């Protein structure tokens, strides 16, 4: 559905401080299969939105090529545009106009043969029929997000771009939206979504790429990626993380200190734990807490970039 190679975008801004350039995307390859949910996971400022906007024909790449739904992104942008739906991070739902009218307008803009019917269908599909005649400002965050997706889908595109679809939603609305995105996949729509939520990427995506500073640092299924940094993570909280790390180094594949936390990467946590605790006790290192977990996508991010996704987000 999408084959992209070497996508690049640099932004130049001029202000009183002078000319500033930001290399937002620095050579991204992407391969999205038909009917899959593909995720672009990364911290704030990683280049997710810029990548999606290039693929959605909204900004022109400085370099690179892409074929989307069988059409060349640069040579046939109008054909590409007809085959995709795009839902921006902000959502694009008007406050003063009701949902039905907004969806109907999108259907007309796209030249849908029977806009009334297409609107009614998409309203029904997203559980919006009851709310269809209320102005945008009276809808909840989750309802607005569903209207935005309905606007993006009313012309029945085979490919949908969702830029951070669940940011700001409460857990119940996020779960609801995940179900609806999964239903899209079942009906054959390919979905490319960006997110900075690890659990979202893990729960929803068939495959994903992790981006950082405009580059792809890892790609695969969530299970493959986690297998790459295989094994378990033992997280120990202590006042002496450096000393604890030195003590357990020989028993671990890798250790990482993060404030008062020591992460110990081992092949088999259950078996490694007793030996680890014994060694720490012998050295007189006191612990305030112990946790044993399977590796997560954050551990993949940490292994590839040396930072956790949370830290990377905070630094951006
Ligand atoms: N129009 C623009 N002009 C100048 N700089 C830009 C522009 N758009 C994006 N950037 C910069 O490019 C970098 C990547 O931005 P982008 O929006 O693609 O990141 P993102 O991964 O989507 O982040 P977020 O999760 O915060 O939306 C950032 O440093 C951003 O400030």
TrEMBL record:
Keywords: Antibiotic resistance, ATP-binding, Cell membrane, Membrane, Nucleotide-binding, Translocase, Transport. SMART domains: AAA (SM00382). It is found in: Cell membrane. GO terms for molecular function: ATP binding; ATP hydrolysis activity. Pfam families: ABC_tran, DrrA1-3_C. Residues 2-238 form the ABC transporter domain. Its main location: membrane. NCBIfam families: drrA. Belongs to the ABC transporter superfamily. Drug exporter-1 (DrugE1) (TC 3.A.1.105) family. This is ATP-binding cassette domain-containing protein.
């Amino acid at each position: 559905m999408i084959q992209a190679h070497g996508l690049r975008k640099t932004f130049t801004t001029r202000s009183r401080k002078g000319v500033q350039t930001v290399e937002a995307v620095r050579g991204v390859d992407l391969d999205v299969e038909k009917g899959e949910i593909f995720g672009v996971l990364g911290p704030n400022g990683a280049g997710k939105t810029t990548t999606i906007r290039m693929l959605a024909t909204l900004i022109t790449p400085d370099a690179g090529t892409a074929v989307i739904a069988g059409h060349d992104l640069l040579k046939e942008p109008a054909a590409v545009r007809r085959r995709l739906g795009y839902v921006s991070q902000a959502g694009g739902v008007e406050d003063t106009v009701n949902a039905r009218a907004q969806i109907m307008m999108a259907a007309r803009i796209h030249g849908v043969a029977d806009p009334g019917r297409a609107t009614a269908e998409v309203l029904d599909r997203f559980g919006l029929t009851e709310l269809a005649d209320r102005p945008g400002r009276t809808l909840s965050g989750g309802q607005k997000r569903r209207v935005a997706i309905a606007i993006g889908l009313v012309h029945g595109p085979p490919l949908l771009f969702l830029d951070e679809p669940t940011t700001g939603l409460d857990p119940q609305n996020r779960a609801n939206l995940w179900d609806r995105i999964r239903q899209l996949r079942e009906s054959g729509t390919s979905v490319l979504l960006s997110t900075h939520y690890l659990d979202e990427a893990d729960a929803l995506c068939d495959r994903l790429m992790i981006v950082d500073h405009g580059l792809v640092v890892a790609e695969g299924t969530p299970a493959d990626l986690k297998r790459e940094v295989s094994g378990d993570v033992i997280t120990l909280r202590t006042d002496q993380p450096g000393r604890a790390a030195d003590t357990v180094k020989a028993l671990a594949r890798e250790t990482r200190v993060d404030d008062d936390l020591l992460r110990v990467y081992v092949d088999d946590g259950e078996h490694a734990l007793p030996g680890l605790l014994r060694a720490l006790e012998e050295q007189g290192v006191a612990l305030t807490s112990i946790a044993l977990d399977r590796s997560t996508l954050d551990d993949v991010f940490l292994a590839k970039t040396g930072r956790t996704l949370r830290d990377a987000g905070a630094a951006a």
